[in-house]
Amino acid sequence: MRWPVIILALLVLALQYPLWLGKGGWLRVWEVDGQLQAQRATNHQLEQRNAALAAEVQDLKSGNEAVEERARYELGLTRPGEIYVHVPRRADKPAEEPTGSEAPGQ
């Protein structure tokens, strides 16, 4: 009675091996599903970028305002009669540290 139970248990284990660890097993399915989710996220980001670029192209094709704006900000171009003034940005000043005589608590 004991040997047939052991043989049947081994047969069940032998049949389960391909399901879990085989070429098309569950572990491989979970791995591929993770890759699929990552690729979908990447595709979504690229679709958003493409939509933004398509909107920018449409804006550049449809009117002069977008072209003028890019020319002003990227190239520094001006209209006739205008004067271009460039104001450089200030660099953040580092925090001044107290000297020996100005130390707190004195």
From TrEMBL:
It is a single-pass type II membrane protein. It is found in: Cell inner membrane. InterPro entries: Cell_div_FtsB, FtsL/DivIC. Residues 36-70 form a coiled coil. GO terms for biological process: cell division. It comes from the Bacteria. Residues 87-106 are annotated as: Disordered. Its main location: membrane. Residues 22-106 are periplasmic. Residues 1-3 are cytoplasmic. Keywords: Cell cycle, Cell division, Cell inner membrane, Cell membrane, Coiled coil, Membrane, Transmembrane, Transmembrane helix. Belongs to the FtsB family. Essential cell division protein. May link together the upstream cell division proteins, which are predominantly cytoplasmic, with the downstream cell division proteins, which are predominantly periplasmic. Part of a complex composed of FtsB, FtsL and FtsQ. This is Cell division protein FtsB. The gene is ftsB.
